[in-house]
Design a protein that fits this description.
11% of the residues lie in helices and 40% in strands. The strands form 4 sheets. A 5-stranded mixed sheet has the order 1-7-6-3-4, with no helix packed on it. It is rod-shaped, with a radius of gyration of 29 Å. The protein is mostly beta strands. The chain has 2 domains: 28-124, Immunoglobulins (Immunoglobulin-like, Sandwich), CATH 2.60.40; 129-215, Sandwich (Immunoglobulin-like), CATH 2.60.40.3880.
Length: 226
Amino acid sequence: MKKNYLLCALIVLALSVFASRSFAQGSGPSDATTAAPTNATDVGKVLCAGQTISISGPQDPNGADWTVYHWYKLDAGGNKQLTTTTGRTYTEVASGAGYYTYQVVTESASGCTSPISDPFKVYVLPPLTTTITTSISTICAGVGTTVLTANPTPSTGYTLNYQWTRNGTNIPGATSNTYTVSNEATPGTVTFGVVVSYTLNSSCAGSATSDVVIAPIPTKPSISAN
C-alpha cells in the first residue's frame, strides 16, 4: 500500500515538472529571428507588443463547435507543442516580438479527428519608442531655422511612418523623419512633436515632443549724437 502511494506521488510530481517545463517552452514567439513580413497580408495578423493573441478554429457544418479542439504551437525548432486549450478559441498574451505559429485539430463527439490545419502565423511587433534631437533649440523670430530629427527604436528592420505636429496639431506634409522649423514669427515657445508608427500596423506607435524657443528680434536701432 505504501509502495503504491509512493509510486503515485512520484508520477504526480513527474507530471507536474513536465507540465511546468512544457509551459515554459511554450511561452514567447515560435520564431524570434526571421525578418518581419513585408506586408501585413503575408501573415494572419500583426499585433503590437504585449497585445493578446486571439485566434479561433472552425465550426462543424451545422455551425456548432466541435467537441474538442487540439491546439498546437510551434516551438523555435518548428516542432508542434500541444497546448492545454481544448475550446474553439485560443488566446495568449504576446511576450516577445516575432512569429507565433499555431495549428489545430478538431475532434467530433464520436472521437473522430480531422487532419491538422495549415499553420496560422501571427506577427508581434517590438515596442516602438522615439526621441527628438534638434540642431538648435532657440531661433530668432521670423528668420531662424532649426532641424528636428526623430530617432526611433527599433531604427532598422521595419518600415516606419512619421507625422510631425505643432502644438498638438498635425503639420500637413510633414511625414519624413526630419522636420525643419522656419517662419515662426511670434516670439514664445512652440511644442513640436512626432508620432512614429509601423507600416505593418499603424496603431503600434511611439511619440515624443520637443520645445523650440522663438526669441524676439531687437527693434531697429537708431543712432544719436553724444
